[in-house]
Write a structure and sequence with these properties.
Shape: globular
Number of strands: 8
Structural class: alpha+beta
Distance between the termini: 40 Å
Order of helices and strands: EEEHEEHEHHHHHEEH
Helix content: 40-55%
Radius of gyration: 17 Å
Oligomer: single chain
Length: 213
């Protein structure tokens, strides 16, 4: 699973874009434990950017996804420069068995306050067949306390697995078919460059403003 179908993708066409709305999809009714609130505000989900931002991006990602890695620097730049975007990370390990290892390692780093560093270290590893050993080396190089990480992975295993299961259920409820998937305000998009992220953030902000009037 390394990309979205045409039905869900956002395509840049000159200066314009075509985005697919996602909120209120009937698929949500199939999962009693999945709601818009849980997707946007799961208290266990790592959050970057401005936690009180007026636009929320929910990023469903896999550490073996080359398209996720291609988009990552542009997403980071767009969020940082905007300054008012809330970024919710959804570790969604669907490509390879080691994707699960990556998700667990990143989420375990959250307990030492280093999810962001772990996430970026794992996203910076090139390729789509990254081994667990290579992931661990990248985290160690990024300054993650590996002894603490291993201890937290063991002690918090139930919590970490629960987060991943919730992410899986949310992705299924939304009908997602591949990584990356970005929910930006009311829009669902796939791989974007910097200008694409900027435009969809602006579109989401404008749509939200119009809905509140």
């Amino acid at each position: 699973m390394t990309g979205l179908s045409r039905r869900h993708a956002l395509f840049a066409i000159g200066a314009g874009v075509l985005a697919t709305p996602f909120m209120g999809r009937s698929a949500l009714a199939q999962f009693a434990d999945v709601s818009k609130e849980m997707i946007l505000n799961d208290p266990a989900a790592p959050v970057g950017g401005d936690p009180k931002g007026d636009v929320t991006i929910v990023a469903f990602l896999d550490y073996n996804c080359p398209f996720c890695k291609k988009s990552a620097p542009d997403l980071d730049r767009a969020v940082k420069e905007d300054g008012e975007v809330r970024l919710v990370y959804k570790d969604w390990p669907v490509i390879r068995p080691t994707s699960i290892d990556g998700a667990k390692l990143a989420l375990a780093a959250k307990y030492q306050g280093k999810y962001d560093g772990a996430h970026h270290a794992l996203m910076a590893i090139p390729g789509s067949g990254v081994s667990k050993e290579k992931m661990r080396k990248a985290l160690q190089a990024a300054g993650i306390d590996m002894r603490r990480l291993d201890a937290d992975m063991k002690a918090k295993s139930a919590e970490i697995e629960s987060i991943i299961k919730r992410n899986m259920a949310q992705a299924d409820a939304l009908g997602l078919t591949g990584t990356p998937t970005y929910l930006i305000g009311p829009f669902m998009t796939s791989t974007l460059d910097y200008k694409g992220f900027k435009q969809v953030i602006a579109d989401a902000r404008a749509k939200q403003a119009g809905a509140s009037q």
